[in-house]
Write a structure and sequence with these properties.
about 375 residues; mainly beta; Lipocalin; twelve-stranded antiparallel β-barrel; four-stranded antiparallel sheet; about 60% strand; elongated; disordered N terminus
């Protein structure tokens, strides 16, 4: 059963290709229409067109009753904003993958990285995530190979916005996302003549990401609070050249994959998200110059392209139009300072700036011990 609450004299009706038009009805008839719909189910026939139609053509309407989410779901702005909130979990998982510091081949090495910042993704409108993340791990050296494990955690405050530039309408949302997981990592070094070094890296990750989101318009009824598992892989190869033991230049390439499982029965069962995958390629460089035996300033940059990262969403049985995506290219620049007060202990402070499809600023601090 559906009942319509009409704020003015326009009562929507379904016509043609599931589009809505209005006919003028006096406000004094609203109680009669409410009674008529309850007694004879006259408005109940709207459910099937909503399941089959193109939701981007449906105008927002206010509903009361057991399926009050239906018309909020039918509003394309609100649905896309919900999808953008879902993308925040994938963004956190990707951020943790970027933080991984691969170990050297010392017998035993421990590391911990703390990071914080804000990043905004151009997802059609935008998804913004701000908050801390951290990684801690332990590795063991076996000749030219190092093997280890780590745990990772990230938390972010989420803001989303979706708008129709032509019509001037917009819908905002807010929430939070948390990712907790761990994995294994490996690095192999091959020493070449003239102080050159070739290396390859691998990391496998798994964990759970929790997404909580709601629209700023609390009457919209669009709220979800879910946890889903994720998987991730990072592989990379690189080449380092040392110049008279005073500076070094490193060239590298990384491939990063992340997978979030599908989520169904969101917003009263009217919205479902398919599995989300991220495929990123990074090509970059880093230059280190030893100022003293203990102090090493460094700088670097990389180009990143996301090949996927699109939310595959369905609302009321129809594909969501203009689905938001992380797909696009970005450039990141880093500036850092490494300090090693003792031969076994090192610290690193780095500032990064990102521009392009994703943009933002971040600051990270890493401490490591080698034994």
């Amino acid at each position: 059963m559906l009942a319509l609450a009409v704020p003015d004299d326009d009562i929507p009706t379904v016509v043609g290709n599931n589009r809505f038009r209005s006919r003028s009805v006096g406000a004094r008839w609203v109680p009669f229409l409410f009674f008529f719909s309850a007694a004879f189910g006259a408005v109940g026939g709207m459910e099937e067109p909503l399941r089959q139609g193109n939701l981007s053509n449906v105008a927002p309407i206010h509903l009361y009753g057991d399926i009050q989410h239906v018309l909020a779901i039918a509003d394309g702005l609100q649905v896309r904003a919900m999808c953008e909130g879902w993308l925040a979990g994938a963004a956190l998982v990707n951020d943790c993958g970027d933080l991984l510091p691969f170990p050297t081949t010392k017998k035993i090495a421990a590391f911990c990285t703390l990071d914080g910042g804000i990043e905004r993704y151009k997802t059609g409108s935008y998804t913004e995530v701000r908050g801390p993340s951290s990684i801690a791990g332990l590795s063991f050296g076996l000749g030219p190979v190092a093997l280890g494990g780590f745990v990772e955690c990230a938390h972010g405050a989420v803001r989303t916005k979706d708008d129709e530039k032509a019509g001037g309408a917009e819908f905002r949302g807010k929430g939070k996302s948390t990712a907790v997981g761990g994995g294994i990592l490996a690095r192999a070094n091959v020493r070449l003549p003239n102080f050159n070094l070739f290396f390859c890296e691998f990391a496998g990750r798994a964990g759970s990401v929790h997404n909580a989101w709601d629209g700023d318009d609390t009457d919209s009824g669009i709220v979800y609070d879910r946890s889903e598992p994720y998987l991730g892989v990072r592989t990379g190869v690189g080449f380092r050249v040392d110049f008279r033991q005073k500076c070094s230049v490193e060239l590298y390439g990384n491939y990063l994959w992340a997978h979030l499982t599908k989520e169904e029965n969101v917003a009263g069962g009217l919205v479902s998200f398919g599995s989300l995958e991220s495929h990123r390629l990074q090509l970059g460089w880093q230059a280190d110059c030893w100022a003293t035996e203990k102090l090493t300033p460094w700088c670097g940059a990389y180009l990143e392209h996301e090949f996927a990262g699109t939310v595959d969403g369905v609302a009321s049985g129809a594909d969501i139009s203009n689905q938001p995506s992380l797909k696009g290219s970005s450039v990141a620049c880093k500036l850092g300072l490494s300090y090693r007060p003792f031969s076994a202990v090192g610290m690193d402070l780095a500032l990064r700036a990102v521009a392009g499809h994703r943009s933002g600023l971040g600051l990270s601090f890493q401490i490591d011990g080698k034994f």
